[in-house]
Amino acid sequence: MLRIVDARTGRLVEIPSVSRHLLSICVHLPAGDAGIGMEGLRALLIGDVLARTAELHGLQSRAFLAAPDLPPERARTLDGAMSALGVHPFSAVGGHRPGGPLRAAADVHVDACGTAARDAVDGARVDVGQVEQASREKDTALVPEGTDPLALRMLMLGHAYRTPVMVTGAELDEAGRRLAVWRQRVADWAEEPSRPVPADLLRHAHAVLADDLGVPAVLSMLGTVAGRADVPAGAKFETFAFLDRVLGLDLARDVGHQHRAAT
Protein backbone atom coordinates (compact mmCIF):
# COMPACT_ATOMS: atom_id res chain seq x y z
CA MET A 1 0.00 0.00 0.00
CA LEU A 2 1.36 3.40 -1.01
CA ARG A 3 0.44 6.49 0.98
CA ILE A 4 1.22 10.14 0.38
CA VAL A 5 0.32 13.40 2.13
CA ASP A 6 -2.52 15.20 0.36
CA ALA A 7 -1.58 18.89 0.43
CA ARG A 8 -5.26 19.86 0.60
CA THR A 9 -5.80 18.16 3.97
CA GLY A 10 -2.30 17.50 5.32
CA ARG A 11 -3.25 13.87 5.85
CA LEU A 12 -1.81 10.65 4.50
CA VAL A 13 -4.01 9.06 1.86
CA GLU A 14 -3.74 5.74 0.09
CA ILE A 15 -2.89 5.79 -3.61
CA PRO A 16 -4.48 4.65 -5.78
CA SER A 17 -7.61 5.16 -3.75
CA VAL A 18 -9.48 2.20 -5.23
CA SER A 19 -8.54 -1.44 -5.56
CA ARG A 20 -6.67 -1.54 -8.86
CA HIS A 21 -3.14 -1.86 -10.15
CA LEU A 22 -2.65 1.34 -12.14
CA LEU A 23 -1.41 4.59 -10.58
CA SER A 24 -1.89 7.71 -12.70
CA ILE A 25 0.35 10.71 -11.99
CA CYS A 26 0.01 14.19 -13.46
CA VAL A 27 2.88 16.66 -13.04
CA HIS A 28 1.90 20.33 -13.32
CA LEU A 29 4.52 22.89 -14.28
CA PRO A 30 4.16 26.63 -13.68
CA ALA A 31 3.16 28.93 -16.51
CA GLY A 32 5.30 31.92 -17.40
CA ASP A 33 7.75 33.33 -19.86
CA ALA A 34 10.85 31.99 -18.12
CA GLY A 35 10.43 28.45 -19.37
CA ILE A 36 11.07 25.45 -17.12
CA GLY A 37 13.23 26.26 -14.10
CA MET A 38 14.58 24.23 -11.21
CA GLU A 39 11.16 24.04 -9.54
CA GLY A 40 9.69 22.44 -12.64
CA LEU A 41 12.57 20.00 -12.91
CA ARG A 42 12.16 19.02 -9.27
CA ALA A 43 8.45 18.33 -9.79
CA LEU A 44 9.28 16.16 -12.80
CA LEU A 45 11.82 14.30 -10.69
CA ILE A 46 9.28 13.68 -7.91
CA GLY A 47 6.73 12.42 -10.45
CA ASP A 48 9.37 10.09 -11.87
CA VAL A 49 10.36 8.72 -8.45
CA LEU A 50 6.71 8.23 -7.49
CA ALA A 51 6.14 6.21 -10.67
CA ARG A 52 9.27 4.15 -10.00
CA THR A 53 8.16 3.53 -6.41
CA ALA A 54 4.73 2.37 -7.57
CA GLU A 55 6.34 -0.12 -9.93
CA LEU A 56 8.61 -1.39 -7.14
CA HIS A 57 5.44 -2.09 -5.14
CA GLY A 58 3.84 -4.06 -7.97
CA LEU A 59 1.73 -1.29 -9.48
CA GLN A 60 1.69 -0.16 -13.06
CA SER A 61 1.97 3.59 -13.47
CA ARG A 62 1.14 6.21 -16.06
CA ALA A 63 2.79 9.61 -15.71
CA PHE A 64 1.79 12.56 -17.84
CA LEU A 65 2.52 16.25 -17.96
CA ALA A 66 0.46 19.42 -17.81
CA ALA A 67 2.82 22.16 -18.91
CA PRO A 68 2.76 25.63 -20.40
CA ASP A 69 2.75 25.81 -24.18
CA LEU A 70 6.45 25.97 -24.95
CA PRO A 71 8.11 27.04 -28.19
CA PRO A 72 10.00 24.20 -29.92
CA GLU A 73 13.40 25.31 -28.65
CA ARG A 74 12.28 25.34 -25.00
CA ALA A 75 10.46 22.04 -25.47
CA ARG A 76 13.70 20.49 -26.71
CA THR A 77 15.52 21.99 -23.73
CA LEU A 78 12.97 20.42 -21.39
CA ASP A 79 13.34 17.02 -23.08
CA GLY A 80 17.12 17.27 -22.78
CA ALA A 81 16.95 18.21 -19.10
CA MET A 82 14.59 15.32 -18.33
CA SER A 83 16.90 12.90 -20.11
CA ALA A 84 19.97 14.25 -18.28
CA LEU A 85 18.22 13.85 -14.92
CA GLY A 86 17.16 10.29 -15.71
CA VAL A 87 13.44 11.15 -15.77
CA HIS A 88 11.48 8.57 -17.71
CA PRO A 89 9.50 9.99 -20.66
CA PHE A 90 5.93 11.00 -19.89
CA SER A 91 3.16 9.25 -21.77
CA ALA A 92 1.22 12.40 -22.67
CA VAL A 93 1.72 16.14 -22.71
CA GLY A 94 -0.98 18.76 -22.31
CA GLY A 95 -0.75 22.54 -22.53
CA HIS A 96 -2.42 25.11 -20.31
CA ARG A 97 -5.88 26.16 -21.33
CA PRO A 98 -6.59 29.90 -21.67
CA GLY A 99 -8.89 29.79 -18.66
CA GLY A 100 -6.48 27.98 -16.38
CA PRO A 101 -4.13 25.05 -16.14
CA LEU A 102 -5.14 21.62 -17.31
CA ARG A 103 -6.30 19.35 -14.47
CA ALA A 104 -6.56 15.93 -16.08
CA ALA A 105 -7.95 13.05 -14.05
CA ALA A 106 -5.22 11.43 -11.96
CA ASP A 107 -4.64 9.64 -8.68
CA VAL A 108 -1.88 12.12 -7.79
CA HIS A 109 -1.33 15.69 -9.00
CA VAL A 110 2.29 16.79 -8.48
CA ASP A 111 2.44 20.59 -8.44
CA ALA A 112 5.73 22.41 -8.96
CA CYS A 113 6.45 25.34 -6.67
CA GLY A 114 4.92 28.39 -8.36
CA THR A 115 2.02 26.50 -9.92
CA ALA A 116 -1.33 28.18 -9.30
CA ALA A 117 -2.85 26.43 -6.27
CA ARG A 118 -6.28 24.94 -6.81
CA ASP A 119 -8.04 21.86 -5.56
CA ALA A 120 -8.22 18.95 -7.96
CA VAL A 121 -11.62 17.33 -8.12
CA ASP A 122 -9.97 13.96 -8.03
CA GLY A 123 -6.85 12.45 -6.54
CA ALA A 124 -4.32 13.71 -4.03
CA ARG A 125 -2.34 16.92 -4.50
CA VAL A 126 1.39 16.95 -3.81
CA ASP A 127 3.09 20.33 -3.44
CA VAL A 128 6.80 20.18 -4.25
CA GLY A 129 9.11 22.48 -2.32
CA GLN A 130 11.07 25.43 -3.63
CA VAL A 131 14.52 25.15 -5.16
CA GLU A 132 16.90 27.99 -4.38
CA GLN A 133 20.19 28.58 -6.15
CA ALA A 134 23.05 30.29 -4.37
CA SER A 135 24.29 31.88 -7.59
CA ARG A 136 22.06 34.56 -9.05
CA GLU A 137 23.95 34.57 -12.32
CA LYS A 138 21.83 34.04 -15.38
CA ASP A 139 23.19 30.64 -16.28
CA THR A 140 20.93 28.43 -18.37
CA ALA A 141 23.02 25.30 -17.77
CA LEU A 142 21.40 22.53 -15.76
CA VAL A 143 24.66 21.95 -13.85
CA PRO A 144 28.14 23.44 -14.23
CA GLU A 145 30.24 22.06 -17.07
CA GLY A 146 31.98 18.86 -16.06
CA THR A 147 29.41 17.96 -13.39
CA ASP A 148 27.36 14.79 -13.73
CA PRO A 149 23.69 15.88 -14.03
CA LEU A 150 22.73 12.94 -11.84
CA ALA A 151 24.55 14.69 -9.01
CA LEU A 152 21.70 17.21 -9.10
CA ARG A 153 19.20 14.33 -8.96
CA MET A 154 21.02 12.92 -5.94
CA LEU A 155 21.12 16.30 -4.23
CA MET A 156 17.37 16.81 -4.66
CA LEU A 157 16.50 13.26 -3.62
CA GLY A 158 18.36 13.84 -0.36
CA HIS A 159 15.57 16.18 0.77
CA ALA A 160 11.93 15.40 1.52
CA TYR A 161 9.93 16.54 -1.51
CA ARG A 162 8.00 19.19 0.45
CA THR A 163 11.06 20.93 1.91
CA PRO A 164 13.09 23.66 0.16
CA VAL A 165 16.38 22.68 -1.48
CA MET A 166 19.40 24.95 -1.78
CA VAL A 167 21.58 24.17 -4.81
CA THR A 168 25.15 25.39 -4.38
CA GLY A 169 28.40 24.48 -6.05
CA ALA A 170 29.62 22.88 -2.84
CA GLU A 171 26.44 20.79 -2.49
CA LEU A 172 26.68 19.63 -6.12
CA ASP A 173 30.35 18.75 -5.67
CA GLU A 174 29.57 16.68 -2.56
CA ALA A 175 26.69 14.88 -4.29
CA GLY A 176 28.92 14.15 -7.28
CA ARG A 177 31.69 12.85 -5.03
CA ARG A 178 29.28 10.59 -3.16
CA LEU A 179 27.82 9.33 -6.42
CA ALA A 180 31.27 8.48 -7.78
CA VAL A 181 32.22 6.64 -4.57
CA TRP A 182 29.02 4.59 -4.63
CA ARG A 183 29.48 3.66 -8.29
CA GLN A 184 33.03 2.51 -7.63
CA ARG A 185 31.92 0.44 -4.65
CA VAL A 186 29.07 -1.12 -6.64
CA ALA A 187 31.57 -2.03 -9.36
CA ASP A 188 33.86 -3.62 -6.75
CA TRP A 189 31.02 -5.51 -5.05
CA ALA A 190 29.90 -6.86 -8.44
CA GLU A 191 33.15 -8.90 -8.54
CA GLU A 192 32.04 -10.93 -5.50
CA PRO A 193 29.51 -13.81 -5.44
CA SER A 194 25.94 -12.56 -5.56
CA ARG A 195 23.84 -12.66 -2.40
CA PRO A 196 20.15 -11.77 -1.96
CA VAL A 197 19.07 -8.42 -0.59
CA PRO A 198 18.81 -8.88 3.21
CA ALA A 199 15.17 -9.23 4.20
CA ASP A 200 15.32 -6.54 6.88
CA LEU A 201 16.76 -3.99 4.43
CA LEU A 202 14.14 -4.88 1.85
CA ARG A 203 11.32 -4.46 4.36
CA HIS A 204 12.69 -1.13 5.58
CA ALA A 205 13.10 0.26 2.06
CA HIS A 206 9.59 -0.77 1.03
CA ALA A 207 8.14 0.72 4.23
CA VAL A 208 9.81 4.13 4.01
CA LEU A 209 9.07 4.49 0.29
CA ALA A 210 5.44 3.57 0.83
CA ASP A 211 5.14 6.16 3.63
CA ASP A 212 5.05 9.53 1.83
CA LEU A 213 7.91 8.74 -0.55
CA GLY A 214 10.73 8.53 2.00
CA VAL A 215 13.60 8.58 -0.50
CA PRO A 216 16.01 10.45 1.84
CA ALA A 217 15.69 7.53 4.28
CA VAL A 218 16.63 5.11 1.49
CA LEU A 219 19.75 7.13 0.69
CA SER A 220 20.66 7.20 4.38
CA MET A 221 20.14 3.43 4.62
CA LEU A 222 22.42 2.81 1.62
CA GLY A 223 25.10 4.99 3.17
CA THR A 224 24.95 2.84 6.30
CA VAL A 225 24.86 -0.45 4.37
CA ALA A 226 27.98 0.50 2.41
CA GLY A 227 30.01 0.49 5.64
CA ARG A 228 28.49 -2.56 7.32
CA ALA A 229 30.94 -5.41 7.75
CA ASP A 230 28.12 -7.89 8.45
CA VAL A 231 26.56 -7.47 4.98
CA PRO A 232 28.40 -9.49 2.28
CA ALA A 233 29.69 -7.60 -0.74
CA GLY A 234 27.36 -9.50 -3.06
CA ALA A 235 24.36 -8.52 -0.93
CA LYS A 236 25.49 -4.89 -0.95
CA PHE A 237 25.64 -4.99 -4.74
CA GLU A 238 22.14 -6.45 -5.04
CA THR A 239 20.75 -3.94 -2.51
CA PHE A 240 22.19 -0.93 -4.33
CA ALA A 241 21.17 -2.26 -7.75
CA PHE A 242 17.64 -3.06 -6.60
CA LEU A 243 16.99 0.32 -4.98
CA ASP A 244 18.49 2.16 -7.92
CA ARG A 245 15.31 1.17 -9.73
CA VAL A 246 13.73 3.96 -7.66
CA LEU A 247 16.70 6.28 -7.26
CA GLY A 248 17.64 6.34 -10.94
CA LEU A 249 21.27 7.24 -10.20
CA ASP A 250 22.88 4.74 -12.62
CA LEU A 251 24.77 3.21 -9.73
CA ALA A 252 25.90 0.17 -11.74
CA ARG A 253 27.36 2.30 -14.54
CA ASP A 254 30.98 1.37 -13.79
CA VAL A 255 30.43 -2.39 -13.44
CA GLY A 256 32.94 -4.19 -15.67
CA HIS A 257 34.63 -1.04 -16.88
CA GLN A 258 37.89 -1.79 -15.12
CA HIS A 259 38.20 -5.10 -16.99
CA ARG A 260 37.50 -3.56 -20.37
CA ALA A 261 40.07 -0.87 -19.64
CA ALA A 262 42.69 -3.49 -18.79
CA THR A 263 42.28 -5.47 -22.04
Structure description:
The chain has 263 residues and is an alpha/beta fold. Helix content is 41%, strand content 16%. The protein is built from eight helices and nine strands. α3 (149-157) crosses α4 (169-189) and α6 (215-226) packs antiparallel against α7 (233-247). The N and C termini lie far apart (48 Å).
List the helices and strands and how they pair.
Blueprint (H helix, E strand, L loop, with lengths): L1 E5 L4 E5 L6 E7 L9 H19 L3 E8 L4 H13 L8 E3 L12 E4 L12 E4 L3 E3 L15 H9 L7 E3 L1 H21 L9 H12 L4 H12 L6 H15 L9 H6 L1
Parallel strand pairs: 3-4, 3-6, 4-5, 6-7, 8-9
Antiparallel strand pairs: 1-2
Quick description:
With 263 residues, the protein is α/β, with parallel strands linked by helices. The protein has 8 helices and 9 strands. It has helices at 38-56, 72-84, 149-157, 169-189, 199-210, 215-226, 233-247, 257-262, and strands at residues 2-6, 11-15, 22-28, 60-67, 93-95, 108-111, 124-127, 131-133, 165-167.
Shape: globular
Helix- and strand-based class?
alpha/beta
Cα-to-Cα separation, first versus last residue: 48 Å
Please list the strands of the largest sheet in the order they lie side by side: 5-4-3-6-7
Give me the Rg, rounded: 19 Å
- Poorly predicted sequence stretches spanning 5 or more consecutive residues: 95-102
- Succession of helices and strands: EEEHEHEEEEHEHHHHH
Tally the helices: 8
Query: Strand percentage, roughly?
Result: 15-25%
| Largest sheet: number of strands, sense, barrel closure | 5 strands, parallel
- Helical percentage: 40-55%
Summed over residues and divided by their number, the pLDDT gives a mean of 87
How many beta-strand elements? 9
